[in-house]
Amino acid sequence: MKTIYTGNLPFSATEEDIRALFEVYGTVASIKMMTDHQTGRFRGFAFVDLEDESAASAIKGLDGRQFGERTLRINEARERPSRGAGR
Fold first, then answer.
1. This prediction's pTM
2. Is 87 contained in some domain?
3. Is residue 16 part of a domain?
4. Cα separation of 54 and 1, whole Å?
5. How far apart are CA 9 and CA 52, in angstroms?
6. Residue 57's domain spans which residues?
């Protein structure tokens, strides 16, 4: 299973919209849409989990594609660095 960073999504995008984009390449295991903590508004990026083989095809097929008048940025997600003990 690979997690794919999906950026520059329209703020109006729904989970169903994102699922439809990726299901062309394989079965979507999960989608996590990132929202603003204060307003709850979608922040324009999400993380999508796909099988390894499907993930590579999705990245190649979707990166740079137009979606809702925006150019998608699609790549394999990287681990988030630790923020330290202060949080």
1. 0.88
2. no
3. yes
4. 9
5. 22
6. 2-76
